[in-house]
C-alpha cells in the first residue's frame, strides 16, 4: 500500500502556480484517511522553491512507524521553465532518517548525490560490578557521496512544474524522466486527456474540473502491475483531485484538496 500511496502523493505535486499553500487529504477505501500532503511554492521572476511534505496518519502511521517524506526542489526560472539547482528527498520514521541531496551541474551534465543516514540502535553493555546487562539506544550515522550514472535535467517537482509546457492540447504526451520520479529507474508517461478519454475520466471527479491528465507508471518491480493515476485540475488552473483506481486488497486511493491559498506576485 505504501508504494501506491507515495505515487499519489508525488503526483499531486504537479502544480501550475506562483506562490501558494495547499493541502490534500489522502484516503484508501479499506482504511479511510491514511495521510495528507502539504505543498508550498514560492517564486519570483528568477527563482523558485517548492516543497511537498507527505505525512501518514491513523493505521498507515502505525504500520509505517509515523513515516513522513519531504521533497524539496530549489532552482531558477529561465524562459518560463523551472531549472533545479538542488533537490532534497527526506524519509523519516520513528528510528530512522535518510536524507538524499542532489546537486545539479547543468553545464557538465552531472548530478552529485550526498546520502546521509541516521538510525537508533540498541547497544548492549555488561556491567561487571553488578553482573547485569544493560541496553540503551545510541545514534549511528553514515554519509556517502556519489555521482549519478545518468544525468537528468529535472527532479520530480521541477518536472511537474514544467508539465504545462511539456504536455498540453498540442503535445499530448510527455515522458517524465527526472530525479525522484517513481524509483529513479522507471519513467512515468504523462498524457493530456481529451474527447472520449476525458469524458470517461471526468465521471470520477467532482464538479468544476477542467484539464485531466493520466500518469502511466511502469511496475515498481517485476511482480507488480502497471499503475495509472488520474489527476484533475479545476477551472482556475490548480490541481483539485487525484485518483489511483482499484488496487488489489486496498481498493481506491484518492486525494482531494481541502485547503488552498494563492498569493500572486
UniProtKB/TrEMBL annotation:
Query: Could you say which residues form the signal peptide?
Result: 1-17
Keywords carried by this UniProt record: Signal
Instruction: Name it.
Output: DUF3108 domain-containing protein
Amino acid at each position: 500500500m505504501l508504494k501506491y500511496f507515495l505515487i499519489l502523493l508525488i503526483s499531486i505535486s504537479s502544480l501550475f502556480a506562483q506562490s501558494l499553500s495547499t493541502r490534500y487529504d489522502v484516503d484508501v477505501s479499506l482504511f479511510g484517511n491514511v495521510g495528507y500532503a502539504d505543498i508550498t511554492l514560492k517564486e519570483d521572476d528568477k527563482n523558485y522553491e517548492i516543497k511537498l511534505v507527505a505525512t501518514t496518519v491513523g493505521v498507515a502511521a502505525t504500520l509505517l512507524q509515523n513515516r513522513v517524506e519531504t521533497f524539496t526542489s530549489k532552482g531558477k526560472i529561465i524562459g518560463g521553465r523551472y531549472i533545479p539547482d538542488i533537490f532534497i528527498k527526506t524519509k523519516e520514521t520513528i528510528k530512522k532518517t535518510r536524507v538524499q541531496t542532489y546537486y545539479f551541474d547543468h553545464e557538465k551534465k552531472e548530478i552529485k548525490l550526498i546520502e546521509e543516514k541516521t538510525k537508533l540502535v540498541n547497544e548492549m553493555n555488561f556491567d561487571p560490578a553488578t553482573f547485569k546487562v544493560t541496553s540503551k539506544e545510541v545514534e549511528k550515522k553514515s554519509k556517502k557521496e556519489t555521482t549519478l550514472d545518468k544525468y537528468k535535467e529535472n527532479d520530480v517537482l521541477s518536472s511537474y512544474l514544467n508539465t504545462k509546457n511539456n504536455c498540453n492540447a498540442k503535445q499530448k504526451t510527455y515522458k517524465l524522466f527526472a530525479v525522484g520520479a517513481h524509483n529513479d529507474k522507471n519513467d512515468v508517461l504523462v498524457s493530456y486527456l481529451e474527447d472520449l478519454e476525458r469524458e470517461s475520466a471526468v465521471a470520477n471527479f467532482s464538479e468544476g474540473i477542467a484539464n485531466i491528465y493520466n500518469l502511466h507508471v511502469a511496475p515498481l518491480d517485476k511482480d507488480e502491475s502497471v499503475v495509472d493515476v488520474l489527476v484533475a485540475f479545476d477551472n482556475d488552473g490548480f490541481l483539485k483531485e487525484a485518483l489511483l483506481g482499484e488496487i488489489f486488497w486496498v481498493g481506491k486511493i484518492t486525494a482531494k484538496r481541502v485547503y488552498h491559498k494563492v498569493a500572486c506576485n
